[in-house]
Structure formats: C-alpha cells, structure tokens
C-alpha cells in the first residue's frame, strides 16, 4: 500500500491521448509490436465502463464455471492489465503476458487504433464492454479520488469539463466507443453494454460464453451468474481489489455502487443539458444508444 499522501507522477500524452505515468510511451510502442495469439481472449473497455466485471465474467466462462479455481487467484493474475508498467522492479505487464500459456485472457483500455498490429491479423475473440457515458463519468470521477495514480478532482464539477473535452485518461469516451462500435459486427468482436448486463446478466453471460466458444455447463450456470453479481464481487477478495496498492482504501472501495443512473445524483440540470447536446452531436448517425436509467 502506498502512503496516503503519495503524489502521482504527472500524466503524459501518447499520440495526443492523456495517459497515466504508469503507462509510459515505450510501453505503448512495444504493445503495438507484441505477439498476439488466435486463441487469446481480449477484454477491452473505456475506463470505468465495467472492465472488472467483464474480466470476472470472462474468467468464470473460460474456467468452465469452476468457481473454486476462479477464487484461487486474484483477478489481475487471471486477466492481466496489459498496458501497466514497468513499475519499479516489476517488468511491464505486456512482457509477463508474452510468457503466459494459452489461452491467455488479456484486459486493456486501448483505443481501437492503438491495438497491437498482430491483433488485426490474428483476430482473437474480443469483448468490448460499453457503459452510458454519464455513469462512466461519475464512476471515473469517484475513481480519481481513491486511485493513488490519478490526479484527484475534488468535486464532480471539476472533473466534468475534463471528461467532456476528452482530457482524461484514455482520452475521449466518444472517440473510444465510436470506433469500437463501428467494428461491432466483426466476427471476432462482441459489443456488450453494462446496462444489458445489469438487466440480464444470465442472458449476457450465456451469449458471451457462446461467442468465446466456451459454452457454460448448464448445471453450473446459476452459480456462475451469482458469482458475478455486484454484491458477490464486492465481497470477493479475488475480484474486489481489496489488497491492491493502487487504491487508497481509507477513501473508498473499488466496488462503489454498480448501478445504472447514479449520474442523476451528480449531474446538474445544466451539465445534463450540455451533455445531451454533445451526445447528439458526437454520436449522430452511429445508432449507439444506452439506457440512462433502469
Ligand atoms: P460505480 O463506480 O458506478 O460503482 P471498471 O471495472 O471499468 O473500473 O468499472 C468500475 C465500475 O463497475 C464501478 O462502477 C463498479 O462498481 C462497477 N462494477 C464492478 N463490478 C460490478 C458488478 N458485478 N455489477 C455491477 N457493477 C459492477
């Protein structure tokens, strides 16, 4: 655990996109050239869209819903975060990923155009989890307050303009989502919405399992779905980052609310109107829509 007064090293811009210092430019450069395998499974998200949820679901599916096995290792060992490090003596995560036996499960926040060159050739199965941007923004703001590596924004009003401009880690929500959405029909890509997982986790997990080619054993589906609910994941030390050094545990927990529509508790009327207009302008013609509440 890092000291409470730990100051993160300054963010930087990689090809115009704001990034954390813990992912330096040479790491992004090296990832472009890394080895990708056909039987990899990639979990891609814009930050705070349900990455951890997508990772846990994927891990459960690929392990055939063997929950004892799933609970025997922390999530980041089962589904490593690709673009992390090097951190002190710890090598960059992509180097560790290169050593893993197949089938590898890999989690990334990379925008489409920064995916490794071989990913476009080998076309491994890739899940993209998207979440309505208002809830994503609120979740992202809270995260800046508990994550040691992020610049902290004290109030949501401080964070909101940065999110709107796309001057946040991994850049614009609009650019990221639009590009992955354009590729939603590619045979190796499955585009899933956080809100649909909230509405019907069981149905979405069955769909994902079939897409991955690891269909869930019928007698284990109920337990597998239960294992991936918010309440269960929040309590599961192998999925809740309870021991993670990047979180200031005095300030909050990784699993915060896990709801659809919490933005209503944070957006002012003016912010909401501005955001609705922006969404119309940026996403016009894409056909990408979200549930803003359930
Ligand atoms: P909130 O901050 O709105 O609670 P990421 O993993 O991309 O960082 O996303 C984190 C968000 O996903 C957090 O949202 C977290 O609570 C939520 N989340 C994680 N696991 C979840 C689950 N099983 N069900 C619903 N939401 C979940």
Describe this structure in words.
The chain is of the alpha/beta class and 294 residues long. It is 41% helix and 9% strand. It contains 14 helices and six strands. The chain has helices spanning 25-32, 51-62, 67-70, 75-78, 93-99, 117-122, 133-146, 156-165, 173-182, 194-199, 201-212, 221-227, 230-235, 269-283; strands at residues 12-14, 17-19, 41-45, 105-108, 125-130, 189-193. It has a four-stranded parallel β-sheet with strand order 4-3-5-6, sandwiched between helices. Strands 1-2 form a two-stranded antiparallel ribbon. The longest helix has 15 residues, at 269-283. 36% of the residues are buried. Bound molecules: adenosine-3'-5'-diphosphate (A3P).
**Uncertain residue ranges:** none
Contiguous helical run count: 14
String of helices and strands: EEHEHHHHEHEHHHEHHHHH
- Largest sheet data: 4 strands, parallel
Write a brief structural summary.
With 294 residues, this protein is an alpha/beta fold. The protein has 14 helices and 6 strands. The strands form 2 sheets. It has a 4-stranded parallel beta sheet with strand order 4-3-5-6, with helices on both faces.
Secondary-structure topology with pairs:
Layout (H helix, E strand, L loop, with lengths): L11 E3 L2 E3 L5 H8 L8 E5 L5 H12 L4 H4 L4 H4 L14 H7 L5 E4 L8 H6 L2 E6 L2 H14 L9 H10 L7 H10 L6 E5 H6 L1 H12 L8 H7 L2 H6 L33 H15 L11
Parallel strand pairs: 3-4, 3-5, 5-6
Antiparallel strand pairs: 1-2
The chain binds adenosine-3'-5'-diphosphate (A3P).
Adenosine-3'-5'-diphosphate binds next to helix 2, helix 7 and helix 13.
Keywords:
4-stranded parallel β-sheet, binds adenosine-3'-5'-diphosphate, 6 strands, 294 residues, single chain
């Amino acid at each position: 655990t890092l000291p409470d007064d730990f100051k993160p090293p300054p963010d930087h811009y990689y090809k115009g996109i704001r990034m954390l210092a813990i992912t330096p430019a040479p790491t992004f450069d090296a990832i472009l050239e890394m080895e990708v395998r056909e039987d990899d499974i990639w979990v891609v998200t814009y930050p705070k869209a349900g990455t951890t949820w997508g990772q846990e679901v994927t891990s459960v599916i690929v392990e055939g819903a063997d929950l004892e096995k799933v609970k025997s290792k922390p999530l980041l060992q089962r589904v490593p975060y690709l673009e992390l490090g090097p951190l002190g003596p710890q090598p960059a995560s992509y180097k560790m990923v290169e050593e893993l036996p197949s089938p590898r499960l890999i989690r990334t926040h990379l925008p489409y155009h920064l995916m490794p060159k071989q990913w476009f050739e080998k076309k491994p199965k890739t899940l993209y989890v998207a979440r309505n941007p208002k809830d994503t923004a609120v979740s992202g703001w809270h995260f800046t307050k508990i994550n040691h590596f992020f610049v902290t924004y004290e109030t949501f009003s401080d964070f909101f303009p940065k999110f709107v401009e796309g001057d946040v880690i991994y850049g614009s929500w609009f650019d990221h989502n639009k590009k992955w959405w354009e590729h939603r029909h590619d045979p190796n890509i499955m585009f899933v919405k956080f809100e649909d997982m909230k509405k019907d986790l069981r149905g979405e997990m069955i769909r994902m399992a079939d897409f991955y080619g690891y269909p869930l054993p019928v007698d284990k589906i109920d337990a597998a779905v239960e294992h991936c609910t918010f309440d269960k994941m929040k309590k599961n030390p192998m999925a809740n980052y309870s021991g993670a050094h990047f979180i200031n545990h005095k300030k909050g927990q990784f699993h915060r609310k896990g709801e659809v529509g919490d933005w209503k508790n944070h957006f002012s009327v003016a912010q909401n109107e501005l955001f609705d207009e922006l969404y119309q302008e940026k996403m016009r013609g894409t056909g990408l829509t979200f549930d803003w509440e359930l």
